[in-house]
Amino acid sequence: MLLYLHFDSKTVKEPIISLTTLEKKTLINIIRGSVGGREGELFVEVDDARAAEIIDFIRSKGVEVTEIRERITKSEDCIDCGACISICPVEVFRLDEDFRVLADAEKCIRCGICINVCPVNALELPKI
Amino acid sequence: MNSVTSKTVGEINRKISEGSAVVVTAEEMKEIVEELGAEKAVKEVDVVTTGTFGAMCSSGVFFNFGHADPPIKMQRVWMNDVEAYTGVAAVDAYLGVTQISDKLGMEYGGGHVIEDLVRGREVELRAIAYGTDCYPRRELVTEITLEDVNQAEMINPRNAYQRYKAATNSSNKLLKTYMGTLLPNFGNVTFAGTGEISPLNNDPEYRTIGIGTRIFLCGTEGYVIGEGTQHAPPFGTLMVKGNLKEMSTKYMRACVFPGYGVSMFIGIGIPIPILDAEMARFTAVRDRDIETEILDYGVPRRGRPVVRKVTYEELKSGKVEINGEEVRVSPLSSFSVAAEIMEELKRKIEKGEFYLSAPVKRIPVKSEFKPMKQKEIVVVKNLMSEAIKIEPNAAVVEASRTIIEKNVNHLPVVDSEGRLKGIVTSWDIAKAVASGRIGKVEEIMTRDVVTVHPEDPVEFAAEKLKRHNISALPVIDAKRRVLGMLTSEDLSRLVAGR
Known about the structure:
The complex is a heterodimer of chains A (128) and B (498). Chain A has helices at 16-24, 51-60, 113-117, and strands at residues 2-7, 29-35, 40-45, 64-68, 73-74, 93-95, 101-103, 123-124. With 128 residues, chain A is of the alpha+beta class. Chain A folds into two domains: 2-68, Alpha-Beta Plaits (2-Layer Sandwich), CATH 3.30.70.260; 71-128, Alpha-Beta Plaits. The longest helix of chain A is centred in the middle third of the chain and has 10 residues, at 51-60. In chain A, 26% of the residues are buried. With 498 residues, chain B is of the alpha+beta class. Chain B has three domains: 3-57 and 155-350, no CATH class; 66-149, no CATH class; 380-496, CBS-domain, CATH 3.10.580. Chain B is 22% helix and 30% strand. Chains A and B meet through loops of A and strand 2, strand 19, strand 24 and helix 7 of B.
């Protein structure tokens, strides 16, 4: 499950991800993040089965957690050219046996690189 | 050739009118020939349909808008702010698919105007003129639809490329090209063309595809009107035409390649008459037999280096190996739409709605694609100056002395075999002295050096100097041996005269 974590001026200084890993004995995959002086944000991936307790734990440390369900969407405009396939860092796109482009949106980490690469504007990343 | 197993286009057309012609797609034909052999396949199959659907930049539409009152001899004309060429008769103009909008830039271009017209939308037509006795009007603004124009004839100078070179990128920056977005450090490969189902790969001798061949073009009937520009088999191309008013957006789509511009996906299907065993063998071609090369777009030269040879089978598998690593591949042509085109054309022929035509003239099988005739191009080695080198364990004091004696600002630091290890500048030495670090050169040198190669064009070197905000580049060979230096002073000689 993909989570968006927002750290305020206080929590941004604390090693909350490491703390969660140690306390909950779980692996957290950091997808991307940015840390400024007064706040920070992270996109992380956590174990689906234990998501609820991990979210509770992170929230208990004062971090705002949003579960991200909005992944890449592909419209009817897609012409199955496959320009997106080799660009996506997590292999969301592939051609099926009929050479149609399939999007396994569950894998999407919202990096957005595919959106500009699509020659017919068929990809969209819904706002969180 | 066995006369029993040969037929003419006329005989095949008769079968089509009787509803007895056997039509298969190029995909199906591979299996049939594999199973029966070419000799038997001729008896079984009359027509093989082929298809391709890819971005074809050399495409556009000739319009005749009809005359205004008072009449105008258009000098410049725009359709939805995209300029069309009107250096022909008064109200004729050619709109190319890659022309970009004066207002929106790369977001919208000729391809989009053409698609909007086919979708039935209104397009703003704006023209200016110098005014003549016969054509007094100087300005015109109106709204038109596809129905309002007299002719809208799609005429594409270069379509249906037989095969393409595939693309990758060895450089360390992301490239935005007509071959799509290329990730740094061989991050991906892109290719175009549909390989074994592509029309020209199924008639490599151009026996049945020539001037006058009736084809499927963007949903309607079109014609081959000659060899395409840059035609050079096995990288052959076709010039084609068809009536835009009859076309469907299912088989034509405007597109944008970020950083490159606008183009248009064009759908072409060509029926190939199976006249004899040779044609059956040609149409049995497989992706594994169709070879091309992966070129390195990281080198901004006409002669882009070949990274490796590759077949369409490997490209279509989605992964190729480069330097021992697996690299993901994006096709840029749509195999699914190409397959729909083959099926649609097959259906039309079976229903007697589409007849074959034999070429009225063959197009050349051998043709040369020459580079542009240019004035001498200046490369780095024509301009570079001698490099004053220094060794890593030399003293900073010695470096400062060399800089003064030789009157230079940059010293490439090289090992005993002349290979580049770093660079020291007069500024580095000033900084070292100011902070009391007057030990060895290797302690103060910059190790990550921006370099050029002797055959790079000077424009490329100038761009590097600007991008990195520096004033000199060591010129190195493939083994990183320093051959010279190219400084901004060397470049200024180009302007000031040598």
